[in-house]
Amino acid sequence: MTADLETPPPTPPPATPEPSAESNSLSRAAPAPQTRLARIEVLAPVSVVVPVYHEADNLPHLIERVEQVRNHYGLDLELVLVDDNSRDGSVEIVEQAGRPWVRMLVRTEDPGLSQSVLHGLRSARHPVVVVMDGDLSHPPERIPDMILALDAGQQFVIGSRYVPGGSTDDDWGFFRWLNSRVATALAKPLTKAKDPMAGFFAFRRADLDRAEYLNPVGYKIGLELIVKCRFDNIGEVPIDFCDRQHGESKLTFKQQLKYVQHLRRLYLYRFAAATTLIQFGVVGASGVAVNLTVLTILALAGAADPVAVAGGIAVSVVTNFLLNRRFTFSYARNRSIVKQFVGFCGASAMGAVVNYAVTLGIKRLAPDLPLQVAALGGIAAGMTLNFLVNRFVVFKATHHREPGAKVEATPPALPHPSATDAPT
Ligand code: GDD
Ligand code: MN
User: Which residues fall within 8 angstroms of residue 77, CB to CB, at 6 or more apart?
Assistant: First the structure.
């Protein structure tokens, strides 16, 4: 869904004042129209989290433009810069700027854009958080409109290139454009957002608690949040994405490969339940064939109905167990097969009894019906019960940490990996 904003298109940035030695308070721009201010005043204060790596040349411009927005709208805004130990003078630049609302966090371990963003989000002091790049590709002037969209009820708001009114710089070559479009298309099954790849987005910090755990690889922390926090009420505010003026992009080919790895994890995470159910259904269908075949053979061999029905059920329980253990619930394959077989038989016993009773019951009510048709009714009743008991009792998922995954101690908002995020 696209944010339905009552607000006009982006406010042009107030004129950039000339930097001067004694100007520690940059010239204040004229106040914004009263209606807008009134709405923004009731909004929660905002923490703007910016991952930076070798962005020393961009930092003064970034701080200046954010300051203008802050002053223009009277926002209670803190700027949290998260630097992966660039040692390029960035720390000194922030110190010299002497703005109490600007903080620089320097990380020395586990470098990475997504990790830096999570670090910044953890330390954010305000209830609304905005994440953006530090190279001025993302216009900070759009932040107020993003906050307004949150205020209007959106859960997650993207500064978007791909909604009407949004754009990318003209000199984006065909391949960069195509690359971005293909990457976006691959994320389609995960979200309806038009620009889920964006590194410019806003949400309420408390909503981090909606994620069981966060485990991004690569650049797409926004997509990770959309999927794991189950944001479906997503607004998109159009932006003009500008190419960086200083420094170089850090988006390498390796990062793009990481995106594929990240996508696989997100697909498994999002569709795990459906995948399990489909596999269980396929195994169940094979069990039906086994059941009916054995039942028919026994009946042809002259066995009484109860014996033929019981024989079909017994053999299909064994084949179902073996196939489910191998495929449907393969994540639990390293545990004791004997224990699991006992559990499976115990769980299937209920289904088997239901199956047996329903089959013979149908046969008694409609004696002319072929035994195989009655057996289908029994199988359907038994299978439903089976799935529920297996999924939630016999092969229940246990929680484990992904090998090599770093889980920081704080905060409660970013908890543990679980078995649903299969190691990749
Ligand atoms: N702390 C930290 N650590 N920051 C990093 C790192 C890192 O390892 N790598 C990149 N950054 C910072 C950069 O300094 C910049 O502020 C921001 O993250 C984005 O990095 P760029 O190098 O400018 O990436 P890009 O312009 O190629 O990619 C941007 O656009 C893509 C869409 O075209 C990012 O916004 C992507 O998230 C986005 O998908
Ligand atoms: Mn960039």
Answer: 45, 46, 47, 48, 66, 69, 70, 101, 126, 143
Tokens of 83: 């630097």
Q: How many Å apart are CA 360 and CA 358, to the nearest integer?
A: 6
Burial 236-249 (b: 16+ CB within 10 A, else e): bbbbbbeebeebee
Residues 120 and 115: their CA atoms lie apart, in Å, by 9
pLDDT digits (tens, 9 = 90+) for 396-406: 766 544 433 33
Across the strands, what pairs with 59? none
Closest CA to 166 of 119, 236, 261, 266: 236
Q: Which ligand is nearest to the CA of 55?
A: 1
Which residue's CA is the closest to the ligand 1 atom numbered 19? Answer: 133
Q: Give the mean model confidence (pLDDT) for residues 106-117.
A: 96
The pLDDT tens digits for 149-161 are 999 999 999 999 9
Cα distance between residue 255 and residue 243, in whole Å: 19
Instruction: For 167-202, give the DSSP string.
Output: EE-TT--HHHHHHHHHHHHHTGGG---S-TT-S-EE
Measure the CA–CA gap between 231 and 415, rounded to whole angstroms.
Answer: 18
Alpha-carbon distance 261 to 335, whole Å? Answer: 27
DSSP secondary structure string, 363-379? HHH-TTS-HHHHHHHHH
Mean pLDDT for 301-306 is 95
Judged against a pLDDT cut of 80, whether residue 284 lies above it is answered with yes
Query: Sign of the CA dihedral 38, 41, 42, 48?
Result: positive
Ligand lying closest to the C-alpha of residue 219: 1
pTM (two decimals):
0.66
Per the CB < 8 A criterion, the answer to whether 84 and 111 are in contact is yes
Q: Which residues line ligand 1 (CB under 6 A)?
A: 51-53, 55, 82-84, 111-113, 116, 133-135, 137, 180, 197, 199, 219, 244, 249-251
Beta strands 234-238 and 46-52 are unpaired
Q: Residue 42 has what pLDDT?
A: 56
Question: Mean pLDDT, to the nearest integer, of 264-288?
Answer: 84
Task: State which ligand 1 atom lies nearest to the alpha carbon of 250.
Answer: 22
Residue type, 70: R
| Centroid of ligand 1 to alpha carbon of 415 (angstroms) | 25
Q: State yes or no: cis peptide before 411, omega within 30 of 0.
A: yes
Q: Which ligand is nearest to the CA of 221?
A: 1
CA angle 267, 265, 158 (to 5 degrees): 70
Task: Kindly state the average pLDDT of the residues 219-246.
Answer: 94
